[in-house]
UniProtKB/TrEMBL annotation:
It holds the Pfam family SurA_N_3. Keywords: Isomerase, Rotamase, Signal. Residues 1-40 form the signal peptide. This is Parvulin-like PPIase. It comes from Sphingomonas gilva.
Amino acid sequence: MGRRCICAVEEVALKNIAKSPRARLALGALGLILAGAAVAQTAPAPQDDVPPPTNLNLPENPTIFGKQDPNVRKATAIVNGELITGTDVDHRLALVVAANQGQVPPDELERLRLQVVRNLIDETLQIQEAKANEIEVTQQEIDQGYARVARSFQRTPAQFDEFLRQQNSSPKSLKRQIEGELAWQRLLSRQITPFVNVADEEVQSIIARLNASKGTAEYRLGEIFLSGTPDTMEQTVANAQRIIEQLKNGGSFATYARQFSEASTAAVGGDLGWIRAAQLPEQLASAAQELQVGQVAGPIPLPGGVSILLKVDERQILTADPRDAVLSLRQMSIAFPAGTTEAQATQRASQFASAIQSLQGCGRVDEVAKTLGATVVDNDSVRVRDLPPQLQDIMLGMQIGQATPPFGSPTEGVRTLVLCGRDDAQVASAPSFDQVMGQLEEERTNRRAQRYLRDLRRDAVVDYR
């Protein structure tokens, strides 16, 4: 495995972008409960992490004795004597489908199913290894984690139970995932973390480089890496193109990264964090500089495979960014009754727009909303960069008391945002020594964790039924 690019360490003090509930579900329960570091595919691997040359002495033109149809799907797997049922696979697959709003073609569904089986096998191995080391995750801890996930969906655990059933999944499936992730984290904390060392000089060097880079551009990127050999590269590229097509049709990047990416950043939905062009391979650097925020590029050829790159955001290092300003907003909205025609919606929106023009600051929002039958929602902590891109430039040009033009749709209704206050962004400071130290330790822990999991896979007895 590769190692995470150093810029993610340097920017550990800066917050992650907001993610939708569906994306959080796709990332898995631990992404909501325990924010972990990950390892990127895009930087050179450390010497002790490179697999040894093969000594298998394979023939160039082997003859295959016996038949095996790779298209025959095995419904269950027994991992070191522990059964993974077809129902387990179906329920976990339903979570992935839900994250893609149910829009998954049949051929893509089968590929997702195979990946889910692999994920469940890894999860089972992690839980088994934790138990072998007398590490226990109690039912109370699992329930607490489940409740936190439910709260992120603004539901009680009972309501979330019903939501999962509506998605053809189950509370049991998600709780099993929570157990696996907590057990693995606890196992790593005992077996690996205490033996990871970071020198003070390394930390100081990172902080110095960050301060020296002040004002240069950096990018928040997501990556899906698919490995391939010269013989399989054509199929690898075709797989990447299918994934890109699904992403263009509204698929969740985080979900596809988690299920298909062969970089260990798959665990966090392919998130590479904040990164500078100089720290990327030339092919990825060029794509990152040319992409607009929200765009996807690929398949991008790299040594050993191809990458799909998502540009999540862009900023200047340690420089005040107007999009980091925190806004105090009042949202005024009206809904259209079922059956409203486009013409009726347009007329109603026009009336709404005329009423907005009479606003004289936030103090009159309630009065105007009452005349329109509109609802009002307040939020005093919205960052400009967390708004939809179409609204960001509008907000940056607004004065206190002004409202955005009406926006919405015939199905969602129409709304406006009234600017009541703005706290401008301050110049960012470099992360502290302890923050950089902690992130470096996490990254090295994750590199060793990948080797640990590979060893568990190698020694496992897996029987497909």
